[in-house]
Design goal:
The complex is a heterodimer. By secondary structure, chain A is of the alpha/beta class. Chain A has four domains: 137 residues, Rossmann fold (3-Layer(aba) Sandwich); 122 residues, Rossmann fold (3-Layer(aba) Sandwich), CATH 3.40.50.1980; 142 residues, 3-Layer(aba) Sandwich (Rossmann fold); 49 residues, Proto-chlorophyllide reductase 57 kD subunit B (Helicase, Ruva Protein, domain 3, Orthogonal Bundle), CATH 1.10.8. Chain A has 26 helices and 16 strands. Chain A has a five-stranded parallel beta sheet with strand order 12-11-10-13-14, with helices on both faces. In chain A, strands 3-2-4-5 form a four-stranded parallel beta sheet, with helices on both faces. In chain B, the strands form three sheets. In chain B, strands 1-12-11-10-13-14 form a six-stranded parallel beta sheet, sandwiched between helices. In chain B, strands 3-2-4-5 form a four-stranded parallel beta sheet, sandwiched between helices. In chain B, strands 7-6-8-9 form a four-stranded parallel beta sheet, with helices on both faces. Chain B is of the alpha/beta class. Chain B is built from 18 helices and 14 strands. Helices cover 47% and strands 17% of the residues of chain B. Chain B has three domains: 155 residues, 3-Layer(aba) Sandwich (Rossmann fold); 122 residues, Rossmann fold, CATH 3.40.50; 99 residues, Nitrogenase molybdenum iron protein domain (Rossmann fold). Classes of the chains: A alpha/beta, B alpha/beta. The interface between A and B is large, with 80 and 73 residues. β1 of chain A pairs antiparallel with β3 of chain B, so a sheet runs across the interface.
């Protein structure tokens, strides 16, 4: 058993639903108890789709368990086929159905329906959503394309240049990995399709997003594959490469530098000249030119100088974390103080990247472990998922979302890619927005006791309700930092005598929650703070205060100082820098 | 109750597009702020609860899932030890919790994990600091609001025995705090009391129950809770539910009669708020008068709400679907529905959608899985979950309740795009 406050991924059958819902003409019969239809809402509400997901649930109840649940599966398959007349059908189980073992996949295979049936084996107690999506996509593609595979011993595929020259056409590729409920997949696909067009490459099939069964069957006619989201498409791309000899482009084009590399890789694989586009994107001029990414100039402009060395923590799926860490370091000038991912399949590349950045990687799907790490590192900005927004709220740290899991606000109406040159523009705005603006930050440094621009208050360009800033319990003030959120915590503290209670995270009696938490994290080494030093610490702006406190305590510990004075504070500052 | 027998009810089985009882956690955690809900289930359960509630950003989550792993299923790990470890970990992080609910799910029930005994065992270790209770919110056992029924039912054995020699009123079912206060005021003006609300705002402050307890149900989905309270000696006051003017008046009257409140006093206390409610309803009635309404099953609130729309807003009822028809709970409501309303219990969602499409109602009350797709087909919808999340009971909310139904129609008229 694993205590889970928030889960980064859904169960694997939700991944399978994402594949079915992404496509047209694919139906999914899911053996599942009543109530599992909640997953429809992910698509109709979070993604605001205007039709029901192509999923038929058996929705068995307790009274069915005594009877023939296998018959329930068969009638669901039959009814779904009759009603929806799909071109292919997925059949699988949810976690509860897995326990009663009706083998729905084999049952459906035995019903001799005149369409391809893909039985799904998705172990719900060991695997998760992205794995489910990847497996489903792979098995669907494999089922549809295996009959078309060239026989063993066939000559190797000709090079893209040879084929396109002979057929006198532009090179074409498949765009793999975009799905329903993927983070900004809709706009990434649009952006990358446009970018490829620009360099003379056509998109043959985009899959699974918006693809039909016929589309999948025509995938071998493309010259190569582009993997946009490895978590979903890597397995499939590898199989296509092995079976049909299609080369794979693997650079994920998130960030200006990565997009340039992506363009170069496509140029090499497709045999097209991409220098014109790269020259345009590399032009070092200070001209604001909307035809190319504005991130390089925005990031160089003096207004961004205060972003230098901002300490960021990055967490999410592996693809977005690797991209974000690189952008944070090389394109925005932040200091990456920690990275991590919940995608265990990509633990190794994340560890390699962490080593290159000189930080420790956190490979975990345990929300509490992530919270612990953020607390210890006390960053000034968290780039993470919807779940890190909870952590950031608790700690009063600015936060931006870079990866799924997401909620409805991250499926916006406006064009909001993460990929390509426009994606870099979107990212610049998104990441900088939650940070306090430069002038406000300076003034806060100088004058701490202003009645309106108070220490630790929400940056004034972000909205907060007046009641919340007055210290009341916020009703829905998502942007609040610092204030204690649970009204009954203090009372419980008095009533309870359990000694460990007083030192539990988020429970210490200090006015600044971030300080409190940071102090607890290093509790064994803390000696004590003299009152003047404590007062001096309060003069440090709140967003770096946690870090300064930790550094000072570490310094005191290492130098055998029992009582921290104002001098210790400044000695530590001189020793470590800010 | 005879009315139920005579009514032609469509009873269907097939795909059900409903929530499981775990969803009740989404509002119960707000009602009882010192309670914590620990689901023992799979990643699907965790995903459900966070998909429903995760749009809110929690500094301190008030629910979590102990996710079963393969080791638990294979019997390699002692499930009880594992559960104890999870509970300890949780309580270390949240020492302010006074009541912890272990919530059963489909997986935990299929593998027959005995949460009842786990709760008893943990209680021995943790009382009086924390009380551990358990109930099932599984989809195979419960539909949506039945999760609240199961939760309250689990608290009933722990209610203190009432020592009162005279009648006490217990209002059962989660209602908005503001509504609770309004009802308190009216009961005190009527001289009805003492009044206890169940569930309480703090889980540690449980109301007493005994032979002199009179039960007034604020929600129609609390059959099991009502039966358990009756078993502890309480008496159920049969009444329609307090939706709209008629429902609220009848509901208050049921209590007033027990306390012997005379007609004049009752009228004196209720006349002004009832008149206010009528004024508020009159403003909204044009939107709903003559409109044809179709209810998909969701919360068991459908029949009382349909009665309100029919009696007080002039709506026509095409079909009123309910996930479960509990005769004890709903008798006083059914009598008031028009004979033209088709009632259905259970669901085969595809067939019901066919009926809905054929009828082309003016307003379809349905869950969020169906709402946007039906809107895209040109049908106006009211998503039903909001009716559980909004203050809709009592006189002062009668207008708000009508407005919830009128708003989609108003919006359709406003939008020019």
């Amino acid at each position: 058993m694993e205590l889970t406050l928030w889960t980064y991924e859904g169960p694997p059958h939700v991944g399978a639903m994402r594949i079915a819902t992404s496509m047209k003409g694919v139906h999914y019969v899911l053996h599942a108890p009543q109530g599992d239809t909640y997953a429809d809402l992910l698509f109709t509400m979070i993604e605001r789709r205007d039709s029901r997901p192509p999923v038929t649930y058996t929705t068995f109840q307790a009274r069915d368990l005594g009877g023939d649940t296998a018959e329930l599966v068969k009638s669901a398959v039959r009814d779904a086929y009759e009603r929806f007349k799909p071109d292919a059908m997925l059949v699988g189980e949810s976690c509860t159905a897995e326990l009663i073992q009706d083998q729905p996949g084999s049952l459906a295979m035995g019903m001799s329906l005149p369409i391809p049936i893909v039985p799904l084996e998705l172990p719900a107690y060991s695997k998760k959503e992205n794995w489910g999506a990847s497996e489903t996509f792979y098995h669907l593609v494999r089922t549809l394309l295996l009959p078309l595979a060239p026989p063993a011993g066939s000559p190797p595929r000709e090079s893209v240049v040879t084929v396109t020259a002979r057929e006198n056409r532009r090179p074409r590729c498949n765009l793999l990995g975009g799905t329903a409920l993927g983070f900004r997949n809709r706009d990434d696909v649009r952006e990358i399709t446009r970018l490829l067009q620009d360099i003379g490459v056509d998109v043959h099939v985009c899959a699974p997003l918006n693809a039909t069964v016929k589309d999948l069957q025509s995938m071998p006619q493309a010259d190569f594959n582009v993997v946009l989201y490895p978590e979903v498409a890597e397995t499939t791309a590898r199989w296509l490469q092995k079976t049909f000899g299609q080369p794979t482009v693997r650079t994920v084009p998130i960030g200006v530098l990565a997009t340039r590399e992506f363009v170069e890789e496509v140029g090499k694989v497709a045999g097209v000249d991409v220098s014109a586009l790269l020259d345009r994107e590399r032009a070092g001029s200070a001209q604001v030119d909307a035809s190319r990414s504005l991130l390089p100039w925005y990031s160089r402009s003096v207004d961004s100088t205060y972003l230098t060395g901002k300490r960021v923590f990055v967490f999410g799926d592996a693809t977005h974390v690797m991209a974000a860490a690189r952008m944070a370091k090389d394109e925005l000038g932040f200091t990456v103080v920690g990275i991590g991912t919940y995608s265990r399949e990509y633990a190794r590349p994340i560890r390699d990247l962490a080593a290159a950045l000189g930080v420790e990687a956190l490979i975990s799907d345990d929300y509490l472990a992530v919270e612990q790490r953020v607390t210890e590192l006390a960053p000034e900005l968290v780039l993470g998922t919807q779940m890190e927004r909870h952590i950031a709220k608790r700690l009063g740290v600015p936060c931006a979302v870079i990866s799924a899991p997401i909620h409805v606000q991250d499926v916006p109406a406006r064009h909001s890619p993460q990929m390509g040159f426009e994606g870099a523009n979107v990212i610049f705005d998104t990441w900088v927005h939650p940070l306090m603006m430069g002038l406000e930050e300076h003034l806060l440094h100088m004058f701490k006791d202003d009645f309106e621009f108070a220490d630790g208050a929400t940056p004034s360009h972000l909205h907060a309700s007046p009641a919340a800033t007055a210290g009341d319990r916020p009703a829905r003030g998502e942007t609040l930092g610092g204030q204690r959120q649970t009204p009954f915590t203090a009372r419980a503290a008095i009533e309870l005598e359990a000694p460990e209670a007083a030192s539990a995270v988020g429970f210490a009696e200090e006015e600044d929650e971030m300080d409190a938490v940071a102090a607890v994290a290093v509790a064994p080494t803390v000696t004590s703070w003299l009152a003047p030093a404590e007062a001096e610490l309060k003069k440090i702006p709140f967003f770096v205060r946690g870090k300064v406190r930790r550094n000072t305590e570490k310094y005191a510990h290492e130098n055998g100082i029992a009582e921290i004075s104002v001098d210790t504070l400044y000695d530590a500052k001189a020793h470590y820098g800010r | 109750m005879s009315a139920v027998m005579e009514l032609p009810v469509i009873r269907e089985r097939g795909q059900r597009e409903v929530f499981c009882g775990l969803t009740g956690i989404v509002w119960l955690h707000r009602k009882m702020q010192d309670a914590f809900f620990l689901v023992v289930g799979s990643r699907t359960c965790a995903h459900l609860v966070q998909s429903a509630a995760g749009v809110m950003i929690f500094a301190e989550p008030r629910f979590a899932t102990a996710i079963l792993s393969e080791r638990d299923l294979a019997g390699l790990a002692d499930a009880n030890e594992e559960l104890d470890r999870c509970v300890k970990q949780l309580l270390d992080r949240r020492p302010d919790i006074s009541t912890l609910f272990l919530v059963g799910s489909c997986p935990s029930e299929v593998i027959k994990l005995d949460l009842q005994r786990a709760a008893e065992r943990l209680n021995e270790q943790l009382m009086p600091r924390v009380r551990i209770l358990n109930y099932s919110g599984s989809g195979i056992e419960t539909t949506f609001t039945q999760g609240e029924d199961a939760c309250l039912r689990s608290m009933v054995p722990h209610l203190p025995e009432s020592t009162s020699a005279t009648a006490e009123l217990m209002v059962v079912g989660t209602i908005a705090d503001v509504v609770e206060d309004q009802f308190s005021r009216i009961f005190s003006q009527l001289g009805v009391g003492p009044v206890h609300f169940f569930p309480p705002r703090m889980a540690r402050e449980l109301p007493p129950v005994g032979p002199n307890t009179k039960l007034l149900l604020a929600q129609p989905f609390l059959g099991e809770t009502a039966r358990a309270l009756i078993a502890r000696g309480a008496t159920l006051l049969s009444s329609p539910y307090p939706f709209g003017v008629n429902g609220t008046t009848a509901w208050l009257k049921a209590a007033a009669d027990v306390w012997g409140v005379d007609e004049a006093r009752f009228t004196q206390v209720t006349a002004a708020p009832a008149e206010r409610a009528r004024v508020a309803l009159a403003r909204l009635r044009p939107w709903l008068n003559g409109k044809r309404v179709f209810f998909f099953p969701d919360s068991q609130l459908e029949i009382p709400l349909a009665r309100f729309l029919y009696e007080e807003c002039g709506a026509e009822l095409v079909e009123v679907g309910t996930p479960y028809l509990d005769k004890l709970m709903i008798a006083a409501e059914l009598d008031r529905l028009p004979a033209t309303a088709q009632i259905s219990e259970g669901q085969d969602v595809e067939k019901q959608l066919d009926r809905c499409r054929a009828a082309r109602p003016d307003l379809t009350v349905c869950g969020l899985g169906l709402a946007n797709p039906l809107e895209a087909e040109g049908l106006r919808t009211k998503w039903s979950i909001e009716l559980v999340f909004s203050p809709v009971h009592g006189y002062e909310q009668a207008g708000d309740l009508a407005e919830l139904f009128a708003r989609p129609l108003d919006r359709a008229q406003r939008l020019a795009v």
